[in-house]
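During the second half of the funding period, the structural biology subgroup turned its attention to how the target accommodates small molecules. The most pressing case was 1-O-alpha-D-glucopyranosyl-D-fructose, which had performed well in the primary screen but for which no bound structure existed. We therefore specified the complex as follows and requested a full 3D prediction, including the ligand pose.
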Amino acid sequence: MSKAFWKEAVVYQIYPRSFMDGNGDGIGDLQGIISRLDYLRDLGIDVVWLGPVYRSPNADNGYDISDYRAIMAEFGTMDDWDLLLEGLHERGIRLVMDLVVNHTSDEHEWFSQSRRSKDNPYRDYYYWRPGKDGAEPNNWASAFGGSAWQYDEQTDEYYLHLFSAKQPDLNWDNPKVRQDIYAMMKWWLDKGVDGFRMDVINFISKAPELPQAPAAEGQRYAWGGQYFMNGPRIHEFLREMNEQALTPGRSIMTIGEMPGVSPEEALLYVGEERKELNMVFQFELMDIDAEGDKWNIRPWKLTEFKRIMDKWQTSLQGKGWNSLYLNNHDQPRMVSRFGNDGRYRVESAKMLATMLHTLQGTPFIYQGEEIGMTNVKFSSIEDYRDVETMNLYRDRVIEGGQDADGVMKSIYAKGRDNARTPMQWDDGGNAGFTCGKPWIGVNPNYREINVKQSLEDPLSILYYYRKLIRLRREHSVLVYGDYRMILDDHEQIYAYMRTLGALRWLVMLNFFESEAEFVLPEEIDYSGKRLVLGNYPADPGADIRRIRLRPYEARVYELE
Ligand code: TEU
Ligand code: CA
């Protein structure tokens, strides 16, 4: 397997609005991040993925960009950004920027021009279509509810927006759009950024006829995914982007966020010979607890979880590269969703972290994960800020007449604001995030769960993350080693081997709060063993042929 810095790296995701407020206005900002750089250095991460910090009216917290070459006023200035980059590089940390180019803000200059008249030179930068029989051009649904089309009086046509109406989709079939985007990317690379995380990048090529989506009986709008996810020209566009914008002779890192991609499709994006991207964020695991739409929660089995992980691990092995994540700014907190955020919060957070850092792929840590931050339950919908959550409540409760408690239950489990409450730095006012009034409430558990407490407790999740990160850096078997699952059908334990040359590592993870029996398969023989890491005090001499794993216990062994 070929070597690359982005395979060896551990990435830390910063959601700028919620990380650290430097000036007391209640909103996280660049100076705030700068003030916490030593924290990141001490954690040991190699790369920061910074959520969008470009100028934006914030309809979707910066994922609606009105100027790609300017900094959002609330976050600071371009000078602040230069200082941030310098501060990161001084500490040996690379910076990956969010690249949001499936859509712009409706306040972007291109769109202001585009909506002006049908013959404006920017008209074709977006998708404009006349209505059909007095309704939208097709029945596609927006990811944030309602139609994906917005009527615009000025020219009596509709424009396409797969996300909010303030996020019109760019028309990538127009070569001018592509050239403008590549020029912008090169501009940032020249400023010294080390790569891009590309927002819904597999949505940029749409089936040209924009066909009607198959809908259930009585369903007005339907997700037209098959007409824009991995669309007809997607690989052509990404290869062109790679060639024209990404290969300036410097090694950078690229991650494509890709809902609706199978491992087979992923290989077309990340296959080592394909010259497109380094890795993708897959969504198959994120869909494990939903039926139909994400709000409709269903219980999942560990065997299903293992089947998904195993499929991605083995399909990409030797051919491409995985990203490894269990949460981000769009997903609930991993310890609440896949672990136990009550009695076994610490144990289960460490167990999940063990998995993330011992599978094959690049681990992504989302801010606060390293101290075991949990989901939040605000009692009132008024306390929520996310456009997706607010639209859901409006559509289902206010306009749809559904039971508010049921909808709140879905929001508690899946709402994106779970991950967007402020980073918990200490047990003082507003968790040390701001001395003003935070833009979104702090999780009330900040008095127990915070960085200060974590630094004082030698057994904290934070110190365990530091250990894992160091371990991965020191032992290339964790990066480049082959992966093979064992105990495939075990319903409580996920276990696998990593091997590189003569090195053999064994990972065992109990995903439940009841004890579980691990029995080593007969064919694995060994003459010696070393307990490398675990989340409980354990007898290093214990016989690993048969072990009772405690609640959420994780162990990593080296076999001789
Ligand atoms: O997300 C795209 C995406 O498809 C999801 O993760 C989405 O947030 C989820 O399905 C909603 O339930 C990206 C960004 O990560 C997200 O924050 C943006 O809102 C979205 O694109 C639009 O830019
Ligand atoms: Ca601020």
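Two results from this model are relevant to the next phase. Residues 142 and 148 are 4 Å apart (CA to CA). The chain has a mean pLDDT of 97.
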